[in-house]
Write a structure and sequence with these properties.
Transferase(Phosphotransferase), domain 1
Length: 155
Amino acid sequence: MLAKSYNSKCDVWSIGVITYIILCGSPPFSGQTDNDIMKAVRAGKVNYEGKGFSATAIDFMQALMTYDPNVRPTAQQCLQHKWIAEGAETALDEKVSLNALNNLKTFRADETLKQATYAYIASQMLSKGKKEELAKVFKAFDKNGDGKLSIEEVK
């Protein structure tokens, strides 16, 4: 999507990100600002150390989050990956399952990665003039200047 070309390989990349979030409870790309996060996404560098991932889980996520969509596997190929195939045959580990569930519960849907992605997509769809105009409108609504619109500010 960053290259303005959407296809099923984008979904494969998203599954890699979601897998990472489910397994450790935080997004694979982070930064202080939206630009920092987008730089991290473009760099494609993901830290797997100290997260408790198995080697096959890391291999699976690395394959799915391969930056070049021409090299990234298809969804069908992902289903054949050793991590998926072995997981389908393995009895569920209750401790691991509860840990993954807790990670999902604590993950906030409005995390910075999601916000950065929306901001990037919006920025690519608007002209500079429109962006400036929308920024002025937003700032007029954002009475407390926190960069977010509360229900009261929208009302």
